[in-house]
Write a structure and sequence with these properties.
alpha+beta
Length: about 270
């Protein structure tokens, strides 16, 4: 459990569309009992252009803070880069849950919201009224405080209850997506077939795919935050070669690493 905490605190999920294609993007990471939650807020521009989202293995609780018609959705991870439409000139407040916390959402199996945007109050009925409360918040800090006051159980669940999947997630994050299903089986004492079944039932995807998403997010971090040469990013993030790196990156982001790097705001190409 201690290993998982260390890795996940350092693993900052990147959704570059939210950060670069909106106005006044801001975020704050808070660790609750070892699990990192990312709070963020942005304002959409007036173009009505779709904002790109990429795979991250997490669930986002996304609140539209429109004064007249506030709303919210439970957004499951996508499995490839996708453009999502938002209302123009509108404030959005988001809560990104770690994979473990996503698995603990009451009455909402993670596998059922893969690539889905479900109405918040139809899905999490015990938190009815949160849309209005969040929208009425005077700013980012007040909205975080409102969420913590009324929805604290969503970010403080007992991750030990997810059993063998918790062990798998720990090893996957510890190795940056480099552990094989065979190694997971040997370390846990369960068969490869059983682990694949449990993982699929819990997350809605195979262990192999989740490993790829971890590596992709690590590569994003290296490109966006680190600025290292792309060849170094590929090697350090566990890709076998440049072709493997390019294939995975294009599949998950719909961009090549070079295309992404040229879009980084104020990136110095020299």
């Amino acid at each position: 459990m201690g290993v998982a905490k260390t890795r996940e605190e350092r693993f900052g999920i990147i959704q570059f569309g939210f950060e670069w294609d909106t106005i006044d993007y801001t975020e704050r990471k808070i660790v609750y009992e070892g699990q990192t939650v990312i709070y963020y807020q942005f304002v959409t521009d007036g173009t009505s252009n779709p904002i790109r989202v990429v795979p991250d293995g997490c669930i986002d609780l996304l609140f539209c803070c429109d004064e007249v018609q506030p709303s919210a959705k439970v957004c499951g991870t996508v499995l490839q880069g996708k453009g999502v439409l938002f209302y123009p000139k509108t404030v959005y407040f988001g809560v990104r849950l770690s994979t473990r916390l996503s698995l603990l959402l009451p009455g909402l199996p993670l596998k059922e919201v893969i690539g889905v945007q479900a109405p918040f109050e139809d899905t999490l009925v015990q938190y009815a009224g949160m849309c209005e409360k969040i929208a009425e918040g005077a700013g980012f800090a007040e909205r975080i405080a409102c969420f913590e006051r009324d929805c604290l159980p969503l970010v403080t669940g007992d991750v030990r209850s997810i059993g063998i999947v918790d062990y798998c997630l720990t090893e996957m994050h510890r190795t940056s997506g480099g552990v094989s299903i065979r190694e997971l089986a040997e370390g846990s004492g369960y068969s490869e077939r059983y682990l694949r079944t449990m993982f699929k039932q819990s997350l809605g995807m195979s262990p192999k795919l989740y490993n790829r998403i971890i590596r992709f997010q690590r590569a994003l971090d290296g490109i966006v935050r680190g600025g290292a040469p792309l060849t170094e990013v590929a090697i350090e993030r566990g890709y076998f070669d440049q072709a493997h790196f390019m294939k995975d990156f294009k599949a998950f982001s719909q961009l090549t690493p070079v295309q992404l790097r040229t879009r980084i705001p104020k990136f110095d190409t020299q």
